[in-house]
Design goal:
This protein is an alpha/beta fold. The chain has twelve helices and 20 strands. An eight-stranded parallel barrel has the order 1-2-4-5-6-7-8-15, surrounded by five helices. Strands 9, 10, 11, 12, 13 and 14 form a six-stranded antiparallel β-sheet that branches. The longest helix is centred in the N-terminal third of the chain and has 18 residues. The radius of gyration is 22 Å and the shape is globular.
């Protein structure tokens, strides 16, 4: 099942064509240099050609407004250190158009220290100058603020206004040197409404990295998808999905071309209460078992997921409404993204005229190519957003080259589209369509062609080997 699903990667270019100006922002979790086994990720494993912007994560701070090196041994060359900063910025030599940035914050850093910094104008000004000095010293192109989150987790209500003030002051200084300013922000309305004055935030940053993932996880008492594209018809929370989050930010004043849609290179896992009850929403008893590389319960890197699935015994299901897959084996359950769902999200980026995508984080993509080609998720993004190489070079005997056809918009009454979703071509098993509802009875029709040797399997909404599809 999993091999067939992998072979099903179809990349469609949005109706407006390849968008050469789309951003692909690649976060690198610097602690991955300590990961065990095949999960060990060094800066030399980064392919800068797949990223328009690379972001080194993370620096820290204190209430005095200092910018702190989080791991001197990994980040600096001092005393025989690994010189992570230097090696990271050096990657621009082979890809001069790629920008190298540094991020401050993250989940573990929390909110309290940032809240204290921004509440005092003099401390805020000191932080701004320290950031500029840091960028100069270590030769970074820009700074990403990943404060998680203003007015939450130890923050205070005044954070919302003070956050804007910080961004304004950072941008004023950055413009003197040509530095890039970005933010990583909570995506969903429930959290974003507490933390951001969206329109004001948008004025001062070059782009916004929307964290459209972690919609469900081990904090839930049921098996939920990490980054569903849309709500299901039976959803108790119709705002808990990618599309709803994007619409919230757009409706509150964020320019679409500043939004980078977050793509998770990991899944959220659960332990099922009953192995026989294994659908979305099934009761759980806690997080799933830790993976061998990420080593944390409730989270699996895509590299761990694809290895598990290749070992067999897992059942893979693609949710027809939420547009992402999940897999289960015995009492273990994981919801994740694969090259197919990533390509669909990339098409969504094009159709919504968003600025691009960001990936958290590239060190948990299949960067070694253990399950096929290297960086299948990141490559799928490049293929759709920037006209790159094939989204997935599958293992033998599958073809390594995909046929691509420009989709077309169809709005007449003669369209084959009568409802949203995939539609088979009854005259040609290799061709199928995706109907995207625009308004009322108006649909945009995307045309897809399966790779050589494969045909469309309407029972699974994917390309499959011909002998496995009864209708063909």
């Amino acid at each position: 099942m999993f091999q067939a699903a992998f072979l099903a990667v179809i990349v469609a270019i949005a109706a407006t064509g390849v968008q050469a100006d789309k951003r692909i922002v690649c976060y690198f979790g610097s602690w991955a240099v300590y990961s065990p086994g095949l999960g060990n990720f060094q800066i030399s494993d980064i392919n800068p050609h797949l990223c328009t912007h690379m972001i080194y994560s993370f620096t820290g701070t204190n209430t005095n407004g200092d910018v702190l090196v989080s791991d001197p041994w990994a980040d600096l060359p001092d005393d025989g250190g690994m010189n992570g900063y230097g090696k990271f910025t050096e990657l621009r030599r082979s890809s001069p158009g790629t920008k190298a940035m540094i991020s401050s914050g993250g989940w573990d850093e929390g909110s309290y220290k940032y809240s204290q910094i921004v509440s005092n104008p003099s401390t805020r000004a000191r932080f701004v100058q320290n950031v500029v000095n840091f960028l100069k010293r270590f030769n970074f192109d820009g700074f990403d603020l990943d404060w998680e989150y203003p007015n939450q987790r130890g923050g205070q209500p005044s954070d919302k206004e003070n956050y804007v003030a910080l961004l304004r002051e950072l941008r004023e200084e950055f413009d003197k040197y040509g530095y890039i300013l970005s933010v990583a922000v909570a995506a969903g309305e429930d959290s974003a409404s507490q933390s951001y004055l969206v329109w004001q935030v948008s004025q001062y940053v070059h782009f916004i990295n929307l964290m459209t993932y972690d919609f469900n996880g081990s904090w839930s008492n049921y098996a939920g998808l990490n980054a569903p594209m849309y709500a299901s018809s039976g959803s108790q929370d119709p705002l808990n999905n990618v599309n709803a989050a994007v619409l919230y930010w757009l409706q509150h004043g964020a320019p679409g071309d500043k939004i980078n849609l977050g793509i998770p290179a990991y899944g959220r896992s659960f332990t099922l209460a009953d192995p026989n009850n294994n659908g979305v929403g099934a009761p759980t008893t806690g997080p799933g078992a830790a993976g061998p590389y990420t080593e944390g319960a409730g989270l699996l890197g895509y590299n761990e997921i694809c290895e598990n699935l290749n070992q067999g015994g897992w059942t893979v299901i693609r949710d027809p409404q939420q547009r992402v897959p999940y897999a289960f084996k015995s009492n273990q359950w994981v919801g994740y993204d694969d090259p197919i769902s990533v390509a669909e999200k990339a098409n969504y980026i094009n159709s919504m005229l968003l600025g691009g995508a960001m990936v958290w984080s590239i060190d948990t993509d299949d960067f070694r190519g253990t399950c096929g080609s290297r960086y299948p998720l990141l490559t799928a993004l490049n293929n759709v957003l920037r006209g790159g190489a094939s989204a997935f070079e599958s293992a033998s005997p599958a073809p390594t080259k995909l046929t691509r056809k420009l989709p077309r918009s169809v709005s007449s009454s003669k369209s084959i589209c009568e409802s949203e979703g995939y539609v088979a071509n009854p005259q040609n098993c290799k061709t199928f369509y995706y109907c995207q509802k625009i308004y009322g009875t108006l649909y945009r029709q995307f045309t897809f062609i399966c790779p050589e040797e494969l045909v469309f399997d309407k029972s699974k909404n994917m390309c499959n080997y011909k002998y496995m599809v009864e209708a063909c």
